[in-house]
Amino acid sequence: MTVVAISKFVLLLRPTPLGRIALCFIYILSIVGGCSEPKVQEPIRSFNAVTEPSSRIRYPSTGYPELLLPNGEKRVVRSVLNIKKPMMFGDYVWDEVGTPAGLTWVRIDLGHQTLSVFRAGHEIGTTVILYGTDGKPTPTGIFPVLSKARTHQSTLYDAQMPFMLRLTEDGVAIHASNVREGSATHGCIGVPLAFAKILYGQMRRGDQVVIV
Amino acid sequence: MKKFRKKQLHAKQRPWRAWCAFLLASLAAAAGFFAMTPGPTREAIAAVLADPLELLALRSPGQRSSGTLVQTKAARGVPRIPANRIPTERVLSNVRWRPFIDLPTNFPGLDVTVSLPTESFFNPSVPANGLNFGPPSLITPIFGPFLGGGSGGSGGVPVSSVPEPSQWLMMLVGFFSIGSALRAARRKGRPPAQVR
What we know:
heterodimer, A: alpha+beta, L,D-transpeptidase catalytic domain-like, 2 domains, 7-stranded mixed beta sheet, 4-stranded mixed beta sheet, 15 strands, elongated, B: mainly alpha, two-stranded antiparallel sheet, 5 helices
C-alpha cells in the first residue's frame, strides 16, 4: 500500500508521459521485488454471527449423541458448530444465537488442542488452546471453576493472566494467553484474549471444565 | 416466409430446453452415483456426522507431539539471562599486553615523514630536551600516487565491475529521469540547460 500511496503522490506532481512510464516500471519492479505487503490469511473469528443454516450441525431429536466424561458420566450433544476445517492458533468461534440457557460446561481436548463450550447441549464456542509442557503437564479430569479474576498477576510466573478461571488449588487455570504455535504453558490452559473475555462472562463458579 | 421466421424463433428458444434437460440428466447421474456408492462409505460419512468427537477433531490444528520444543513463561523474579553475567573469555585474559615494538624510522616503499625534533635530528650535536635518542613521537604516513609493490595490499575500496541490482535500478531510474527532463524541456521549446 505504501508503494501505491507514494506513486499516487508522485502522480499529483504531473510527470511527463515518459515519467509515468518510468513510475509504472518502478512500481512493477517493487511488486516483483516483494515490496508490497504479503497477504495475510484472515483467521476465523466470529462473535454472535448471524446464524446461518450451515453454521451449526444439529442432531436429530430422535437420537442425540453423547460425550463420555472421564468419570463415566454422559453428556448429551444437541448441536455442534459447523467448522469442518482446521482452525489456526489464535482462532476462535463463538456463536450462541438461538441456543437456550442451561448447563454450561467446557470440554478441553489436550490431544487435539481444542476447547469447546457447551450450553444446554449446544456447542456455543470453540478455540485452539495452549496447554502444559511435557515437564509440567496439564492435569486431566473434571474440575469445577474455583474462582474467577478479571485481572490476575501470576504468583509463579512473570506474566499477566487476564480473565482467569481457576481450576485447581495449585494454580492451574484457564486464562488469556498469546496463543500461537510453538508456545506452551506450565499446566494452564491458554486461550485467545477475546475468547477468554467471552468465556469469563459465560462461566460461573462451580461450572465444570472437563479436560481429556 | 412468416411461417419460416416463426419456426426460426422457436428454434432459438430451444437451447433453454436443452439446458433444462442437461440439468435433469446431471441430477439423475448424481443420484445414481450416490445410489451406486458402496454401503461402507455412506456409513462412514453418516458415522462422522453422528459422532460429535469426529466433528470436533476436524477443527483441530493437529497434535503436539511429545518432546516438541516450546517456549513458556519465565518464572517470576528470575530473569532468563542473569543481568550480572559478564561474558568471559577462556582463551584470552582480560589484561591485554603487547610486546613493545621498535618503530622503524624508515619504511621501504612508503613516503613516511617521521616528526622528530628537527634540531636534534639534523644536528645531533645539539642536545634538545634529551629527545635525541628517544622513540619517534608521531608518525604521519603520506601515501604517494603509487604504493609500494612489496606491501601487497591495495588501499582503495574494492569496486566490482558488475553493478548490483540496486545500482542497475538506480541507473535506470536516473536515465529515465534525465530522458524525461530532456523531453519536457524540448517540448516547452527551450534548449536543455547548458554549461556556459
